[in-house]
Specification:
Elements: H1 3-21, H2 26-33, H3 37-61, H4 67-87, H5 91-119, H6 125-154, H7 156-177, H8 190-196, H9 200-220, H10 223-230, H11 238-259, H12 264-284, H13 289-305, H14 307-316, H15 322-349, H16 355-385
Helix pairs in contact: 1-5, 1-6, 1-7, 2-3, 3-5, 3-15, 4-5, 4-7, 5-15, 6-7, 6-11, 6-14, 9-12, 9-14, 9-15, 9-16, 11-13, 12-13, 12-14, 12-16, 14-15, 15-16
Length: 387
């Protein structure tokens, strides 16, 4: 595996830590900026919206830019925005920096995915994407608690400075390891990228991504209150269970990265089917600590096992024009990340108990499985038409 793949994984870890850590710093942000917790929570929503928009917009705007220049520039700008955020006393300025940081992060994701897929052999694409996406998984397991720890003891601004430093370190490493040009002899074309969007199988892949992330995040977003209010675990046990979830995620993305290239649809079907089963187990056993924690572990395993296959699936349908297609897949991830907590919030406000979020996860997973089946059938029909 080229060193550049691991460098991009480091960059995703740095940026992903920023994405995750605010969930643990809301009380500090609220008190320091003089706003309520719900208002501070909008900083998280701003990040999701920024990524949703930034991925396709920056993918098109930077289509003909040199990849090394683009990726290093994104990382430096991400670091600079965090420095501004760390220095400000204004909630509005911080909101703008969060949205812009996410905008840049979305663009980085889309360019990084295409870069990785262009520098590894076809039979190692899934494994390479697993390494890069593993940076976000490690950000969940390590970055979130460490960012929270730094923020609680040294102030939330210190956590922002740490992210800025990590981003600059990743930028320096990227400058040394990333090839400075879009691979291939044909210059990237916006028209070709847009024409690739006419492929219906590509939109089935996007639907699978969005539904899968909805199924995963609707449960993860409310996992802490579910464990304390329904399962009856003490508050101190929640970080431990989140660590169990993180271990499961690492196992899942490692296994999925090794099977995604040879068996993309099988990986998706088994992974999503496993997520549905794990969600049902969590919903039905939420009041019992041991099976509930086991279910959380399995949600992490199966929920992340499909990530490499989701990305390589999109690339296989758009090899001649991958940048915009990859960017919209990043947007599809964020559609699910936004929709999951929203659906869970509606159900909880209607009076349902916390196990309902796991039921919603199972339901969204069933729809995702349906999209996988339709995609597989469509690919087989297209292959049958080729003489």
């Amino acid at each position: 595996m080229p060193v550049a793949v691991y460098v991009l994984g480091l960059a995703i870890f740095a940026q992903g830590t920023s994405e995750m850590m605010l969930a643990g710093l809301l009380p500090e942000l609220s008190g320091d900026l003089g706003v309520g917790i719900p208002q501070a929570g909008l900083l998280i929503s701003a990040f999701a919206v920024g990524m949703l928009v930034g991925a396709p917009v920056l993918a098109v705007l930077t289509l003909r830019w040199r990849r090394r220049v683009t990726l290093v520039g994104f990382l430096v700008l991400f670091a600079a925005l965090h420095a501004v955020g760390a220095l400000t006393d204004s909630y509005d300025v911080l909101m703008v920096t969060r949205a812009l940081s996410a905008f840049v992060y979305g663009g980085f994701w889309s360019v990084a995915a295409v870069t990785v897929l262009s520098i590894v052999p076809a039979d190692r694409r899934g494994r390479a994407i697993g390494v890069v996406a593993g940076g976000l998984t490690i950000a969940t397991v390590v970055g979130l608690p460490l960012g929270t720890l730094v923020g609680q003891n040294l102030g939330w601004r210190a956590a922002f400075w740490v992210v800025a430093a990590l981003s600059l370190a990743a930028a320096a490493a990227a400058a040394l390891t990333i090839h400075n040009g879009p691979g291939g002899a044909v210059r990237p074309s916006v028209g070709a990228e847009l024409r690739a969007m006419a492929n219906p199988r590509l939109w089935l892949a996007y639907a699978t991504t969005a539904l899968l992330m909805t199924a995963l995040i609707v449960t993860f977003g409310y996992l802490a209150p579910l464990l304390t209010e329904t399962t009856g675990l003490p508050d101190g046990a929640v970080p431990v269970v989140l660590g169990v979830y993180g271990i499961g995620s690492l196992i899942g993305i490692t296994v999925g990265g090794r099977t995604a290239d040879a068996y993309p649809f099988r990986t998706l079907a088994y992974g999503i089917g496993g997520l549905v089963a794990a969600s049902v187990l969590l919903a039905t056993a939420a009041t019992r600590p041991v099976p509930a924690v086991a279910a959380v572990f399995l949600v992490g395993v199966f929920g992340f096992a499909v990530n490499p296959a989701l990305t390589t699936r999109v690339f296989s349908e758009s090899e001649q024009a991958p940048t915009l297609a990859s960017a919209l897949n990043v947007s599809a991830f964020n559609v699910g990340i936004t929709a999951g907590p929203w659906l869970g919030g509606i159900a909880l406000e209607a009076g349902a108990g916390y196990p309902v979020v796991a039921w919603l996860g199972a339901g969204a997973g069933v729809f995702a499985l349906g999209a996988v089946v339709l995609g597989a059938v469509s690919v087989r029909r297209a292959a049958a038409l080729v003489p």
